[in-house]
Each structure stands twice: as C-alpha cells, then as structure tokens.
Amino acid sequence: MRPSTPGIPSLQSGPVPPAGPSHPPLEPPVPDAEVLALIKEALNDVAPGREQDFAKVTLTSTIEDLGLDSIATMEMVGYLEEKVDTTFPDEELAKVSTVADLSKLIRGGTL
Fold first, then answer.
1. For residue range 6-45, what is the model confidence (pLDDT) as tens digits?
2. Domains and CATH numbers, the chain
3. Residue 71 in contact with residue 79, Cβ under 8 Å?
4. What three-state secondary structure class fits 98?
5. Of the candidates 3, 5, 63, 105, which lies 20 to 30 Å from 27 by C-alpha distance?
6. Rounded Cα gap, residues 8 and 16, in angstroms
C-alpha cells in the first residue's frame, strides 16, 4: 500500500460524493415570490418603461412572452448572474423556456 500524501485523499478512503450543482444555490431556500421579484427587477432594468407588462409575468410565462430581443435577454441574464453572484452554464441557459426554468437556475439547479 502506498503512503498517503497530505492534503490528497486516498482512493481507499471511501466513495467520492457526487458533484453538486454548477453553482451554489441561494441560501436559505428563497420563496418563489422573491425569485420572481428578482426576475421582474432584472426585466425592468433592461427594458425600462415596461413595468406594467412585466407586472403580469408569472413562473409559467415563457421567455418568448417577455418580448425581449436577444440582447436584452442576455442583459437580463447578466443582471441576474451579478445579483446572485454566479455564472449560469451556457448549456443550461439554452434549455430555458419559461420563467420557472430561469428561477430554477437562479436557485442553483439544472434543467
């Protein structure tokens, strides 16, 4: 048996825990209303003057329903990434079709 190297776990020390989400989840778990409020805040930031439209946004709204062009959509994503101090993986962003999907990413999940 080889001697262990300090700071490096031995392969015989047991199973390796599974990898966690791509970024840490918001702590503690944040209520849907707060995540939705954050998304609406981002929408109002990237498309000022549309507050009344965005007030109607729900978790079941589609990204298409938001009526943003691709640049505004990426600005919204950047705003959210900055607010939750993370970077959403491109492969996960490509799967987002609803506000609920976006909410799941904000919480640290995957789609």
1. 554 444 545 544 444 445 555 557 789 999 999 999 999 9
2. 26-106 (1.10.1200.10)
3. no
4. strand
5. 63
6. 12
